[in-house]
Structure formats: structure tokens, C-alpha cells
Amino acid sequence: MQKCHRLKRELSRLMENPPEGICCYSKGDTVNSLLATIIGPRGSPYEAGTFQLEIEIPERYPFEPPHVKFITPVYHPNIDNNGRICLDLLKMPPKGGWKPTISLENLLSAIQLLLESPNVDDPLMAEIAEEFRFNRPEFERKARNFTQESKRKRKRE
């Protein structure tokens, strides 16, 4: 019951006053399955992109974090080819930083920030992290091209 009330309140807040470049809504009749869209941050190689994410809310929410993954492919050190995200806030303590006080808005904002500022000290994609560290221009070129290609594919569909 607490989960349902909290989710409805959070979704209502997100729809009424969304953070810049973020929107989130239920997939169907239930609040357990959500979709989110994040616009790539300005000044980043993802700037021209629109990224879709799936969010599954566990039964014990907010006492355990949502399961979030990118549907849109992303060339990023902390996002793998299956859309899984390596982000501290998506993990339970003691190894992670999830707290019941973190809202969906906070979580989506943190994911948007991760696009802007990858955490190469905790990568899912080690080769991309190395490229980010030692050949930033090449990383940015590939990330930009990947983002543009995803955009073109969506237009054709």
C-alpha cells in the first residue's frame, strides 16, 4: 500500500514538474512498470540523443531500488550492451548507495548526470573506460556517432 501511494505521488510530481530533459510515466495500468525518457545532456556526446529506459519497481520499493535499464543503445563506460547500468544508487548497501529517501526523480537525474560524467573507476565496459581515460576525442567521436545512429534507426522504425 505504501509503495503504491508513494509511486503515484512521485509520478504525479514528475508529470507536473519534470526535471529538464526527463520524463517518466507508467507503461500500462500498473505503476510497477515504467518508461522514462532522458534527453542527452548539453555539451556531452549524447546531446542530440533521446534515450528510453525501462524501470521495474520491486515489491519492497522504496526499501530496495528499482531495476533500471536503457532500451536505447548507448556507447558508455557504465552502460553495457544489454542496457544495464553500473550506478551506486541502483545497488543496495553495503556495496551500493540506495536509500529509501531517493525518489525516481533523483534516480533519473543521477542517470542523466552519469551520461554527462561517466564513472571510469567503476566501469561495466572496461575498454570504453580506457578509451575515455586515454583517448577522449576518440571516445567522444564514437559516442556521438553511436547516438546519431540510434536516432536514425528510430526514425526508420
TrEMBL record:
GO molecular function term, any single one: ATP binding
Keyword Transport: no
UniProt-listed InterPro entries: Ub_conjugating_enzyme (IPR050113), UBC (IPR000608), UBQ-conjugating_AS (IPR023313), UBQ-conjugating_enzyme/RWD (IPR016135)
Keywords: ATP-binding, Nucleotide-binding, Transferase, Ubl conjugation pathway
Enzyme Commission number(s) of this protein: 2.3.2.23
Active site: 86 (glycyl thioester intermediate)
Alphabetical list of Pfam families matching this protein: UQ_con (PF00179)
Protein name: Ubiquitin-conjugating enzyme E2 T
